[in-house]
UniProtKB/TrEMBL annotation:
CDD domains for this protein: Halocyanin
Organism name: Haloarcula marismortui (strain ATCC 43049 / DSM 3752 / JCM 8966 / VKM B-1809) (Halobacterium marismortui)
Hydrolase as UniProt keyword: no
Keywords attached to this entry: Copper, Electron transport, Membrane, Metal-binding, Transport
Gene Ontology molecular function terms on file: copper ion binding; electron transfer activity
Compartments reported by the entry: Membrane
Compositional bias ranges of the Low complexity kind: 32-60
Gene this chain is encoded by: hcp9
Name of this protein: Halocyanin domain-containing protein
Superkingdom of origin: Archaea
Length: 297
Protein backbone atom coordinates (compact mmCIF):
# COMPACT_ATOMS: atom_id res chain seq x y z
CA UNK A 1 0.00 0.00 0.00
CA UNK A 2 1.23 3.44 -0.78
CA UNK A 3 0.89 5.86 2.03
CA UNK A 4 3.40 8.58 1.35
CA UNK A 5 4.20 10.09 4.68
CA UNK A 6 5.71 13.15 3.05
CA UNK A 7 2.38 13.86 1.45
CA UNK A 8 0.58 13.55 4.73
CA UNK A 9 2.98 15.80 6.53
CA UNK A 10 2.65 18.31 3.74
CA UNK A 11 -1.13 18.25 4.18
CA UNK A 12 -1.12 18.77 7.89
CA UNK A 13 1.41 21.50 7.36
CA UNK A 14 -0.86 23.45 5.04
CA UNK A 15 -3.90 23.23 7.26
CA UNK A 16 -2.34 25.18 10.10
CA UNK A 17 -5.47 26.99 11.19
CA UNK A 18 -7.56 23.86 11.03
CA UNK A 19 -4.95 21.88 12.86
CA UNK A 20 -4.88 24.30 15.71
CA UNK A 21 -8.57 23.67 16.30
CA UNK A 22 -8.40 19.94 16.01
CA UNK A 23 -5.06 19.26 17.58
CA UNK A 24 -6.80 17.91 20.67
CA UNK A 25 -8.31 15.03 18.75
CA UNK A 26 -5.43 14.20 16.51
CA UNK A 27 -3.44 12.46 19.23
CA UNK A 28 -0.62 10.63 17.53
CA UNK A 29 -1.88 10.79 13.95
CA UNK A 30 1.00 12.72 12.51
CA UNK A 31 3.65 12.17 15.13
CA UNK A 32 6.11 9.35 15.20
CA UNK A 33 4.84 8.09 18.53
CA UNK A 34 3.60 4.52 18.52
CA UNK A 35 0.24 3.67 19.93
CA UNK A 36 0.35 4.34 23.60
CA UNK A 37 -2.62 6.71 23.42
CA UNK A 38 -5.96 5.16 24.08
CA UNK A 39 -5.20 1.54 24.73
CA UNK A 40 -6.95 0.31 21.60
CA UNK A 41 -4.54 -2.57 21.36
CA UNK A 42 -2.07 -3.90 18.89
CA UNK A 43 -3.86 -2.96 15.67
CA UNK A 44 -3.40 0.69 16.49
CA UNK A 45 0.27 0.10 16.97
CA UNK A 46 0.72 -0.80 13.31
CA UNK A 47 -1.64 1.96 12.29
CA UNK A 48 0.05 4.81 14.04
CA UNK A 49 3.48 3.56 13.15
CA UNK A 50 2.88 4.06 9.43
CA UNK A 51 2.87 7.86 9.21
CA UNK A 52 6.46 7.98 10.38
CA UNK A 53 9.39 8.25 8.04
CA UNK A 54 10.08 4.53 8.22
CA UNK A 55 9.64 2.84 4.86
CA UNK A 56 6.60 0.62 4.38
CA UNK A 57 7.29 -3.05 4.79
CA UNK A 58 4.34 -5.29 3.97
CA UNK A 59 1.43 -3.58 2.25
CA UNK A 60 -1.72 -3.87 4.31
CA UNK A 61 -4.76 -5.33 2.58
CA UNK A 62 -7.81 -3.14 2.22
CA UNK A 63 -9.82 -5.35 4.55
CA UNK A 64 -7.14 -5.19 7.23
CA UNK A 65 -6.90 -1.47 6.90
CA UNK A 66 -10.68 -1.17 7.21
CA UNK A 67 -10.80 -3.43 10.23
CA UNK A 68 -11.29 -0.51 12.61
CA UNK A 69 -13.35 1.64 10.22
CA UNK A 70 -16.46 2.71 12.08
CA UNK A 71 -19.69 1.45 10.58
CA UNK A 72 -18.14 -1.04 8.15
CA UNK A 73 -19.65 -4.53 8.14
CA UNK A 74 -17.29 -5.96 5.54
CA UNK A 75 -19.53 -5.49 2.54
CA UNK A 76 -19.04 -2.48 0.27
CA UNK A 77 -22.18 -0.71 -0.83
CA UNK A 78 -22.43 -1.07 -4.58
CA UNK A 79 -23.61 1.59 -7.00
CA UNK A 80 -24.40 1.09 -10.66
CA UNK A 81 -23.65 3.23 -13.69
CA UNK A 82 -25.47 6.57 -13.77
CA UNK A 83 -25.81 6.54 -10.01
CA UNK A 84 -24.92 9.52 -7.89
CA UNK A 85 -23.43 8.12 -4.71
CA UNK A 86 -23.38 10.29 -1.62
CA UNK A 87 -21.27 9.60 1.43
CA UNK A 88 -22.33 11.26 4.68
CA UNK A 89 -19.46 12.76 6.61
CA UNK A 90 -19.76 12.55 10.37
CA UNK A 91 -22.36 9.90 11.10
CA UNK A 92 -22.44 8.25 14.52
CA UNK A 93 -21.77 4.54 13.95
CA UNK A 94 -20.20 1.88 16.16
CA UNK A 95 -19.90 4.47 18.87
CA UNK A 96 -17.66 6.71 16.80
CA UNK A 97 -17.69 9.05 13.87
CA UNK A 98 -18.02 7.43 10.50
CA UNK A 99 -18.41 7.91 6.81
CA UNK A 100 -21.78 6.51 5.76
CA UNK A 101 -21.50 4.27 3.85
CA UNK A 102 -17.84 3.75 4.74
CA UNK A 103 -16.98 1.70 1.68
CA UNK A 104 -18.58 2.02 -1.71
CA UNK A 105 -18.01 0.28 -5.01
CA UNK A 106 -18.62 2.28 -8.17
CA UNK A 107 -17.95 1.95 -11.89
CA UNK A 108 -15.36 4.20 -13.52
CA UNK A 109 -16.60 7.65 -14.61
CA UNK A 110 -18.67 8.16 -11.46
CA UNK A 111 -18.79 11.28 -9.32
CA UNK A 112 -18.90 10.74 -5.59
CA UNK A 113 -20.29 13.44 -3.36
CA UNK A 114 -19.41 13.81 0.30
CA UNK A 115 -21.96 15.68 2.37
CA UNK A 116 -21.13 17.01 5.85
CA UNK A 117 -23.74 16.21 8.52
CA UNK A 118 -22.36 18.83 10.86
CA UNK A 119 -21.90 16.22 13.62
CA UNK A 120 -18.59 15.62 15.29
CA UNK A 121 -16.71 18.80 14.56
CA UNK A 122 -13.98 19.35 12.02
CA UNK A 123 -13.75 16.90 9.13
CA UNK A 124 -12.04 16.60 5.82
CA UNK A 125 -11.60 14.01 3.09
CA UNK A 126 -8.05 13.02 2.34
CA UNK A 127 -7.01 10.10 0.16
CA UNK A 128 -3.96 8.34 1.55
CA UNK A 129 -2.32 8.25 -1.87
CA UNK A 130 -3.09 11.91 -2.51
CA UNK A 131 -5.60 11.28 -5.31
CA UNK A 132 -8.19 13.58 -3.74
CA UNK A 133 -8.16 16.03 -0.88
CA UNK A 134 -10.93 18.32 0.29
CA UNK A 135 -8.40 20.64 1.87
CA UNK A 136 -8.97 22.41 5.17
CA UNK A 137 -11.20 20.76 7.71
CA UNK A 138 -14.73 22.05 8.06
CA UNK A 139 -17.44 21.50 10.68
CA UNK A 140 -20.34 23.09 8.84
CA UNK A 141 -23.42 21.00 7.96
CA UNK A 142 -24.07 21.19 4.23
CA UNK A 143 -20.42 21.37 3.28
CA UNK A 144 -19.86 19.29 0.18
CA UNK A 145 -16.97 17.83 -1.70
CA UNK A 146 -17.06 16.05 -5.06
CA UNK A 147 -14.59 13.89 -6.84
CA UNK A 148 -14.91 12.34 -10.29
CA UNK A 149 -13.41 8.84 -10.45
CA UNK A 150 -12.25 7.98 -13.95
CA UNK A 151 -10.03 5.00 -13.39
CA UNK A 152 -10.34 1.69 -11.64
CA UNK A 153 -8.55 1.34 -8.34
CA UNK A 154 -8.91 1.27 -4.57
CA UNK A 155 -8.82 4.60 -2.82
CA UNK A 156 -8.44 4.69 0.96
CA UNK A 157 -9.25 7.90 2.71
CA UNK A 158 -9.68 9.38 6.15
CA UNK A 159 -10.97 12.42 7.91
CA UNK A 160 -7.68 13.61 9.31
CA UNK A 161 -8.93 14.88 12.68
CA UNK A 162 -10.70 11.55 13.38
CA UNK A 163 -8.49 9.12 11.60
CA UNK A 164 -7.27 7.41 14.76
CA UNK A 165 -10.85 7.16 15.98
CA UNK A 166 -11.74 4.97 13.01
CA UNK A 167 -13.17 7.55 10.62
CA UNK A 168 -11.91 5.81 7.53
CA UNK A 169 -13.38 4.87 4.22
CA UNK A 170 -12.64 3.54 0.79
CA UNK A 171 -13.85 4.00 -2.75
CA UNK A 172 -13.46 0.90 -4.87
CA UNK A 173 -13.66 1.72 -8.56
CA UNK A 174 -14.16 -1.29 -10.76
CA UNK A 175 -15.93 -2.38 -13.89
CA UNK A 176 -19.36 -3.78 -13.06
CA UNK A 177 -19.85 -7.53 -13.60
CA UNK A 178 -20.80 -8.51 -17.11
CA UNK A 179 -23.11 -11.30 -18.22
CA UNK A 180 -23.17 -10.17 -21.84
CA UNK A 181 -26.79 -9.01 -21.51
CA UNK A 182 -26.47 -5.22 -21.22
CA UNK A 183 -30.00 -4.68 -19.93
CA UNK A 184 -29.44 -7.15 -17.11
CA UNK A 185 -25.93 -5.89 -16.37
CA UNK A 186 -27.01 -2.31 -16.06
CA UNK A 187 -29.98 -3.11 -13.85
CA UNK A 188 -28.02 -5.41 -11.57
CA UNK A 189 -24.85 -3.35 -11.35
CA UNK A 190 -26.16 -2.11 -8.01
CA UNK A 191 -26.93 -5.61 -6.66
CA UNK A 192 -24.06 -6.73 -4.46
CA UNK A 193 -24.68 -10.44 -5.02
CA UNK A 194 -24.67 -10.22 -8.83
CA UNK A 195 -21.35 -11.48 -10.20
CA UNK A 196 -22.26 -11.55 -13.88
CA UNK A 197 -23.91 -14.97 -13.75
CA UNK A 198 -27.36 -15.56 -15.23
CA UNK A 199 -28.37 -18.90 -13.77
CA UNK A 200 -29.64 -21.22 -16.49
CA UNK A 201 -33.01 -22.78 -15.59
CA UNK A 202 -34.19 -23.38 -19.13
CA UNK A 203 -34.43 -27.06 -18.21
CA UNK A 204 -37.26 -26.66 -15.74
CA UNK A 205 -40.96 -25.79 -15.59
CA UNK A 206 -40.69 -24.08 -12.24
CA UNK A 207 -37.70 -22.01 -11.18
CA UNK A 208 -37.32 -20.63 -7.68
CA UNK A 209 -35.92 -17.30 -6.51
CA UNK A 210 -35.43 -16.62 -2.82
CA UNK A 211 -36.40 -13.18 -1.56
CA UNK A 212 -34.44 -11.96 1.44
CA UNK A 213 -31.04 -13.61 1.05
CA UNK A 214 -27.78 -12.05 2.20
CA UNK A 215 -26.66 -9.10 0.15
CA UNK A 216 -26.81 -5.33 -0.23
CA UNK A 217 -25.84 -4.74 3.37
CA UNK A 218 -28.35 -7.15 4.98
CA UNK A 219 -30.95 -9.67 3.89
CA UNK A 220 -31.82 -7.45 1.00
CA UNK A 221 -31.10 -9.58 -2.02
CA UNK A 222 -32.74 -12.01 -4.42
CA UNK A 223 -31.04 -15.36 -4.88
CA UNK A 224 -30.19 -15.86 -7.66
CA UNK A 225 -30.48 -12.27 -8.83
CA UNK A 226 -30.62 -13.28 -12.48
CA UNK A 227 -31.98 -16.34 -14.17
CA UNK A 228 -32.72 -17.59 -17.64
CA UNK A 229 -35.81 -19.66 -18.39
CA UNK A 230 -37.85 -20.89 -21.35
CA UNK A 231 -41.32 -19.61 -22.22
CA UNK A 232 -44.17 -21.11 -20.19
CA UNK A 233 -41.89 -21.50 -17.20
CA UNK A 234 -43.22 -20.45 -13.83
CA UNK A 235 -40.94 -18.49 -11.54
CA UNK A 236 -41.77 -18.80 -7.88
CA UNK A 237 -40.40 -16.32 -5.36
CA UNK A 238 -40.08 -17.61 -1.80
CA UNK A 239 -39.69 -15.30 1.18
CA UNK A 240 -37.04 -16.10 3.80
CA UNK A 241 -38.79 -13.92 6.36
CA UNK A 242 -35.60 -11.91 6.85
CA UNK A 243 -34.74 -8.34 6.01
CA UNK A 244 -38.21 -6.95 6.61
CA UNK A 245 -41.05 -6.76 4.13
CA UNK A 246 -40.22 -7.41 0.48
CA UNK A 247 -42.16 -7.35 -2.75
CA UNK A 248 -41.63 -8.22 -6.38
CA UNK A 249 -42.43 -5.34 -8.68
CA UNK A 250 -41.57 -5.02 -12.36
CA UNK A 251 -39.57 -2.12 -13.62
CA UNK A 252 -41.85 -0.03 -15.81
CA UNK A 253 -45.10 -1.76 -16.76
CA UNK A 254 -43.95 -5.35 -16.57
CA UNK A 255 -46.19 -8.13 -15.30
CA UNK A 256 -44.81 -8.59 -11.77
CA UNK A 257 -46.58 -6.99 -8.86
CA UNK A 258 -46.72 -8.86 -5.55
CA UNK A 259 -47.93 -7.81 -2.15
CA UNK A 260 -45.43 -6.32 0.30
CA UNK A 261 -44.91 -9.15 2.77
CA UNK A 262 -42.46 -9.96 5.56
CA UNK A 263 -43.51 -13.49 6.55
CA UNK A 264 -41.31 -16.47 5.98
CA UNK A 265 -42.75 -18.97 3.52
CA UNK A 266 -44.80 -16.47 1.56
CA UNK A 267 -44.67 -17.16 -2.18
CA UNK A 268 -45.48 -15.34 -5.38
CA UNK A 269 -45.60 -16.88 -8.83
CA UNK A 270 -45.66 -15.78 -12.40
CA UNK A 271 -45.66 -17.80 -15.60
CA UNK A 272 -43.79 -16.10 -18.41
CA UNK A 273 -45.50 -16.62 -21.76
CA UNK A 274 -43.39 -14.33 -23.88
CA UNK A 275 -39.70 -14.03 -24.51
CA UNK A 276 -37.93 -10.96 -23.25
CA UNK A 277 -35.88 -9.56 -20.42
CA UNK A 278 -37.91 -8.85 -17.30
CA UNK A 279 -36.45 -6.59 -14.65
CA UNK A 280 -37.85 -6.24 -11.17
CA UNK A 281 -37.04 -5.03 -7.71
CA UNK A 282 -38.27 -5.01 -4.15
CA UNK A 283 -39.62 -1.50 -3.85
CA UNK A 284 -38.52 -0.69 -0.29
CA UNK A 285 -35.01 -2.01 -0.94
CA UNK A 286 -34.50 -1.11 -4.59
CA UNK A 287 -32.13 1.71 -3.70
CA UNK A 288 -29.99 -0.71 -1.72
CA UNK A 289 -29.68 -2.99 -4.73
CA UNK A 290 -32.49 -5.53 -4.12
CA UNK A 291 -33.06 -6.18 -7.78
CA UNK A 292 -33.56 -9.14 -10.02
CA UNK A 293 -33.89 -10.15 -13.66
CA UNK A 294 -35.56 -12.95 -15.56
CA UNK A 295 -34.48 -13.61 -19.12
CA UNK A 296 -37.08 -15.61 -21.05
CA UNK A 297 -35.82 -17.33 -24.18
CU1 LIG B 1 -36.95 -5.99 0.12
Amino acid sequence: MQRPSTRRQFLTGTGVAALAITAGCVSSGSSSEPAAETGTGTETATETATPTATPESTPESLDDWLDDANGYDGEPRRFGPESRPTVWVGQEMDGGLAFDPPVIEIPPMTTVRWDWTGHGGQQNIVALDGTFDSGRTNAQAGTMYHYFFEETGEYRYVSEPNRDGGMKGAIIVKEPPSSGNDTVDEWLAAASNFDGTIVDRTDTDTATVTAGVEGNGGKFAFGPPALKISTETTVRWEWTGEGGPHNIVSKGDGPLNSELVAEEGNTYEHTFAETGTYLYSCKPHKGLGMRGAVVVE
